[in-house]
Fold this sequence. Notes:
Blueprint: E1 4-5, H1 8-17, E2 22-27, H2 34-47, E3 53-58, H3 63-68, E4 76-81, E5 84-90, H4 95-107
Parallel strand pairs: 1-3, 2-3
Antiparallel strand pairs: 2-4, 4-5
Amino acid sequence: MSLKQLNPSGFEEKIYDMGxxxxxxxxxxxxxxxxxxxPTVEELQTKYEGKFGFYYVDVEENKALYxxxxxxxxxxxxxxxxxxxxxxxxxxxEEEQIEEKIEENLTEQ
Length: 109
């Protein structure tokens, strides 16, 4: 199962308007680390289906969206809940780190 790709208007709708608890992976097709991290995120997607959203932004196609968060390098995994930024994980991250952050966002009230 692949991640749903967001463009700026889709990002606005899913993240801010709907306020869904979710993560957004900022990645680039040519990035070697991204090629390791993105499949890990995709595996977690099936576990949290219906409870937590999983999205993807191609930084080459959506540079302005990437720059709006002042991000440096890829991959970057940003977490959101109720339209609010909840933190990020950068670079080569392990499945456990991602899952821990997802659980944090699901349990916080």
